[in-house]
Write a structure and sequence with these properties.
Length: about 280
Amino acid sequence: MLPVILKVGRVEISSMGLMLVIGVLMGLFVAWKKAKESHVEDKFFLDSAFMSLFWGLVGARVGYILTHFGEFGFSLLKWLWLSNYVGLCWWGGLIAGVGYLWWRLRDSEEDVFLWLDYVSLGVAAALPWGFLAAFLNGSYLGAETQGWWGVNFPGYEMKLVPVQLIMLVISSVFFLWWWRMEGEYRTLSWYRAGRVAARTGFLWFGWLVFLGLSFSMASLFRGEQTQVFGVALDMVMGLLLIGIGVVGIYQRSGRRFWEDISRLKRRKGRQETFKK
């Protein structure tokens, strides 16, 4: 599509690199803005954010190497030479970045789930730029199609499903909705479960559900994908995130499973009595 967006002499600016930088800056700004509203110190936020980004990058590289080990083997040169042996794994970056943040905050007085809410908004803001980068770079390709919605990509005879553009639109709409939900989820009676104040973590776990749904659905329309025991990695991770997100929202709502079951039984009993 447009892998190089600007070239001056021998200096090239790739569309992928530029879009990712814009996405990271956008995500940092959104997360910082929300952290500022919670009176988090700028220095502590920036230290945590940039170190999370660093370890996220390390995790993304390690994840890609592990899922493409046949290409890299035990060659340290290939592992570190990013310009010649390109490749990052989104899932590895997410796990490593969030894992570091959790470790950093575990012994502090900060609300970890509130910080994860910041992360969800920040990454949600950055994600559309990542899909735009994939489209311009010709990566994250869809399956071949003969439909009118197909797009011609260089090097392919048939049209491909523009998964990147579809995910770009979906993730953009989701971010706008989730930004609004940040100010509204505390009023949701089903989430508060009778509490005076709603617990933090709703945005984080809700975002995981969205992430799982969107990536697992997108994997159905993808072309060649990384496989885990014969199943697409995006599908495996997507279903896993859906499960974690649903359980997380339920747990953070303060509900108790057996109490809810008892309540449903009592309601059902009242309905049957009323029918009689």
